[in-house]
Every structure is written in structure tokens, then in C-alpha cells.
From TrEMBL, chains A, B:
Pathway assigned to this chain's UniProt record: Amino-acid biosynthesis; L-arginine biosynthesis; L-ornithine and N-acetyl-L-glutamate from L-glutamate and N(2)-acetyl-L-ornithine (cyclic): step 1/1; Amino-acid biosynthesis; L-arginine biosynthesis; N(2)-acetyl-L-ornithine from L-glutamate: step 1/4
Function of the molecule: Catalyzes two activities which are involved in the cyclic version of arginine biosynthesis: the synthesis of N-acetylglutamate from glutamate and acetyl-CoA as the acetyl donor, and of ornithine by transacetylation between N(2)-acetylornithine and glutamate.
Protein name as annotated: Arginine biosynthesis bifunctional protein ArgJ
Organism: Acidithiobacillus sulfuriphilus
Gene behind this protein: argJ
InterPro entries assigned: Arg_biosynth_ArgJ, ArgJ-like_dom_sf, ArgJ_beta_C
Record-linked SUPFAM superfamilies: DmpA/ArgJ-like
Amino acid sequence: MAIGISAPQHLDPISGIRLGTTAAGIRYAGRQDLTLIALEAGTAVAGVFTRNRFRAAPVIVAERHLARGTVQALLINTGNANAGTGAEGMAAAEESCRIVAEALGCRPEEVLPFSTGVIGEVAPLAERIGAALPACAARLRPDAWIDAATAIMTTDTVAKGCSVRVALDGVHFTVTGIAKGSGMIRPDMATMLAYIATDAPLQGLALERCLHDAVERSFNRITVDGDTSTNDACILMATGKAAMDPIRTPQDPAYGRVAAAVEAVALQLAQAIVRDGEGATKFIPITVTGGRDPQECLKVAYRMAHSPLIKTAFFASDPNWGRLLAAIGAAGIDDLNVEKVQIWLGELRIVRDGARDPDYRETAGQAVMAATEIPIRVDLGRGTAEERIWTCDLSHDYVRINADYRS
Amino acid sequence: MAIGISAPQHLDPISGIRLGTTAAGIRYAGRQDLTLIALEAGTAVAGVFTRNRFRAAPVIVAERHLARGTVQALLINTGNANAGTGAEGMAAAEESCRIVAEALGCRPEEVLPFSTGVIGEVAPLAERIGAALPACAARLRPDAWIDAATAIMTTDTVAKGCSVRVALDGVHFTVTGIAKGSGMIRPDMATMLAYIATDAPLQGLALERCLHDAVERSFNRITVDGDTSTNDACILMATGKAAMDPIRTPQDPAYGRVAAAVEAVALQLAQAIVRDGEGATKFIPITVTGGRDPQECLKVAYRMAHSPLIKTAFFASDPNWGRLLAAIGAAGIDDLNVEKVQIWLGELRIVRDGARDPDYRETAGQAVMAATEIPIRVDLGRGTAEERIWTCDLSHDYVRINADYRS
């Protein structure tokens, strides 16, 4: 049911990175649920993690290990988020790293663990990882990105991945990313995991800035249901295998091109998450212009994106602009002059100067709403700031999926 | 489907107030959709109105008329909210007041108009009101509160009303209230209309304070879907017919008893709105204790109440405490120490010190969740502040109702 996307047919390998997957039986038997990513020595790694105050054990461990510097491997399991599991969960996350370290001949602190799935269940996680890891390690190969994109899925209906290759001054570099997540999605990251790798030689500050800017403009601009998970993370890995000079700061000449490629991959992955939002049938880009500052544009955009009344109207293909107008009015801009507000559905203006556009006809609105992609644009008539976010509708299936998830 | 309530069997008349209803055919033929409330001279009236920046025409007119002082009548129509209708809508609201004034022999500025229903449709509202108003005025009588409670319903499945009679120093006073609203409900009022009347002689500051305090502790503590409407209002009318000394300030001796009765009625009505929330199958009181201040308690409570993941879990009777924990962690308390957080479902502790309570058993949680009323209590372990709100679950029917509302 993902809107306008299908699983990737090809993802470019990144020199210096190998991936392996296996079925560890963590929650379901016979399902690929364990992914190992092995990095060649010298790969630079940066990460951003959930801002939820409840952080899953693997998030705490991954962040701590990342702060120490060198990373040799990433381990991702689905089926169990290992969140809200207390000391037992911390022990399981640490033990998982030890198991990987033993298989790959590195130190446990050089392994980053990631878990996604049901929160708060204590399960024999480390034991099952221990039993399955040798098979996973034995299968490591550079061209398994699609396998990995598939193995990290939970309620996702489609694997999400994207590659960009760029020629720069006669050499090529590549960026490949995979992601999972379709519910509990909102800014500040979500139950979302994303792994982006490049052979471009990003290092230090350049690597950090590149990741943060890309996340801010992609994963932090999407929302499915307004919830924020305890487990999400986005990791950027740079192997430096491309024949380029090291990129150490954002001022280095090649930085802009590499950062643009990373951002393009992040945006593709972020939008794919919304297009595969739980129960989603419509993909809705929301643009708010004419704000005094970006914050008020985002307030209006998210107020619309989080309104169940608007989301159900989109599900019903109902151009119920009154609900849009009510959400804008409730967005918390105290001195909003409603007579300066304009709203467009696609190219069709439906609200002019704060009231129904006299030229608007319901049949025209319905024609726009019948599409599976429905851009909304709001102009606040107050300034020059502009922001854009992406969301989806709220359908019967959203309720079904989330009411049944644990059964 | 309203949870644990049925339509009122009896509502006490308030001396000095008469009500009449009729079918004006505003949106549907043959449905009681017009209500007139006539007040005897000398009735004191106070009102609070939506904080949405988009305010429906009748809200603008009602607030303006109320500011002039004397009120002789209230007119309420369903079927059309007369919101987002620009100058034409303003003219219709003004014309409605003129029609009532003519029928009752008062001035148009002494009439408060109220509309609820679909936003943004321009319809021959004033014409239909004009045709039906004489019949409505001819039927005015003191014991028509239940008729009025029924005539103001839109997507409500049950009429909402409540009376309280209090004996005070040998005299009685009565408070009777009616309300409508079942979607687009959240603090700052909603697509909610409430009319509360008393024969107690509240005046001036005492009347204003009584209304504001009652609303703050009732209608501003409920949420169904987090949306705020363009039309909501709560009106308090005091006829002064009870044999009591005038109550002019909150310091007057009888103020406390009268204010408590008004608040009790407001709370009953507010909870009835949630119990009849669109598609609701569970009534969920949320108490947050141990906050540093009331604001952070409310932040946590509303974050839970607005989480679609939590609301669908309640619909499924699934004690998915991981979703509660994730919502608390994302509520925006930056220095929350999660290890001090406790969560109870009813009397059952499910989270102890930030993780699953070791004594908690899923079967016990499911037993609590099987009920139609499920109190949640969260202790933040940071202070002594405490707040309570009321919400409901998110069901298949919510989506159905709001996807189909205009069809």
C-alpha cells in the first residue's frame, strides 16, 4: 500500500562496507530479523539519536560506544525494541556487542547495537542473537544492501533504500542509504532507523555537520502520527575509499557536493517512510509560506499534519477546507490576521483572504483530492519565511494496524 | 455508543428561562435544528468563546453583543457552522439576531447567535431561520431543556444535560446545563456549545469568575482528537430568581456553594462530551502527579491523550505500556529522570522506576483494559503538582465518522 514507491531494485555497494542478514527467531520464526554491517578500519561514523527521554538500552549503548571513536560494526535486530527493559535490557545490549566483537575480532566498544519492535518486552534477546550471529557474519558481502533494507522492516510494507552516484572532477563517489519506519514517526526522529554510507572521505566536523543538516531537512520534517519513539537513530558512515582528498570541514571544496548527495538520499528515505506510513493512502506535502519566522511556519504545518480531522478528510478525499482553516487558526499564532491567509490544494486556491475562494468549486477540489499525492500550500501573509514538511492521511488501516500490532 | 451515560430523563427548569425548538431544515429536513432560549429581563450573562484565530461569524457577533450588556435571547442552529463564510456569513448572523428581536420585541444587540455544523458552507441560513423562528418562539416554555439538549446535537449520539439543586440556608437554588460536541474537542474549547443556567443571583465579577473557573476545570481539561473548533462557546446565565442576596464578588458568602454547583454541572457536561467522543469505546481519565508545576503535568497528560498509538491501543484493550512510556518521554520535559516515573492502569502498577514493574503480569493489565473506563495515573517523581484530564480512545468508528461526515 506504499504510495508511489516500490522496493529498490538495485542499491550501489559502498567500498569498505559489507552486510549480512539472517533469521534469528527474535519474535517470529523464519523471518530475516538480524542485520550485521561490518566496516573496514578507518571508516568515520556519526549518529543522531532519539530525543525521547525514555531511551532504549541499545540507544544508550550505541551512543556511548560511538563517543569512543572507532566503529567496526553495527548490529540491528527487529522484533524487540529492548526499551523500558531496565538493567536486564542494558545487559542484553552489551552482550550483543560482545557477541559481534568475538565474531569479527574487534572490541565490544567498537560495535553499535540497534533494536526496533515492541517496547518493553523482556525476551532472550542476547541468546538468540548469540545463536544466529555466526551465520550472519559468514554471509557478509558488499552487495547485500537490499537484503539489509528488507531485514530491518517491521510494520513497513516495502523495503526502503536509495543510491546516488556523483562524478566530481573526474572521480566518482557513491551514497547509499536504507531506512525502516512506518508508524510512531515525527520530528526529533522516531521508531525509525536509517543507515547512510558513502565512500566519500567525510571526516570529523564535516561528517557531523553533513549528517545533522541532512536529518534536519529530511527525517525531522516528516510526521505520520505525531509519536516519537524510544529507539530511533540515523547513522552516517564514510569509508573514504573514493579517490578524493579528505573532507574535514564544511569549507572544504568537495563538501557541498557530497553533503547534497547525502541530503538527497536522506530526503528520499524520509519521504519513503511517510509514503509507507501505517495505513497511509495519501502522501501530503505541506508548504507554509509567508511566516515571520520558520518556527511559526512549522507550527502551522505540524498543526495541520497532526489533526486527525484533516487526516481523515484526506483519507476520504474530501476537500474539507474548513478543517484546514480551523487547524491554522488553532496553531498558536496569537496575532494571526486571518484575512491574509490563503490556502491552495495543489494548484487550486480554495481559501482566499481567510474565507472560501469565491471562484472555488467543490468538484475541482474533489478532483485534486482524488490523487494519491495532494500538496497543500498555506500562505500566512506575514513575512518571508517558508517551511515544508511531509505527512500522510489517517485511514481505517492505521487503526487496524495499531490496534492489532501486538496480537 | 456513549460510554456509561444515557440521555437525561429530567432537567430542572430555571425560573426566568424559557426554551423552544423547531425543525428549520437548515441541513436536513425534519430534524430539530433550531433552538431559542428566552431570558427574563435582568438575567446576567457571561460567556467564553473559542481561542481559534478563525472565529465563526456568530462567535464574533455573540461576543460583540454580549459586551454591550443586556441579553434577552440566545439562538442556536445546527447543520451549518457559518464559519469561513466572510462578509456573507456576518450578514447572516446579524440578520438572525434581527429576526429573533422582531419576534421577541427586543433589540438585535440583545440576541446572541450560535451555529454548529459544517464549516465554510454558504447556505440560505438567515432565510431558513426567518421562516422557522415564529414556530420556535410560539413554543417557548420553561421545561424544554431536554428538547433543547436534543436539538443542539450534531454528531452526538446522546443528548447531554445535567441539573443540580442545592439547599442553602433554607432556600434552594438550581443549576441546569446542556451541551453538545463529540469531535474537534480539545482544551481552549472546541466545536462545543454549552449553556448553563442558574436562578442563583450571580452578578458581575462573581458571574465571570464562576464561569471561567468552571470552564478551566472542566471543558478545558478534555480532549477527543486534539482539534479546536472555530465556533465553540460556553454561556452562563443567572436569572436571580432564587430568594438569595445578590452575589457580586467571589468573596460573597454564598459564592462558594453556587460556584461549586456550576462547576459540578460543567464537569458532568464536559465528561459527557468525552464519553460521547466520536467513535469512542473507552473513557480514559488521566491523572499526572509529582510534577514541578501544573503545566508540566498537563504537557504529559495531553501528550498521552493525543497519541494515536496510545488511543488505538486502548481501543484494542491492549495494555501497551511501552507506548505510554514513549509518550511521557516525548512530552518535552528535558530534565525528566525516567527512573522516577511510575505508571498505573487503574490500581495496577505497570511501570516502576521507569521500567516494567517486575510484579506486573499482562493478564492483570488486560483485565483492567477490558473495562470501558480505564483510569491512567502517572507519577513523575519531581514535585507536588497534579493535574487531571479526560479523553477517549481512537476507534475504527472515529475514522468512519470523520471520513464520511460530509457525504
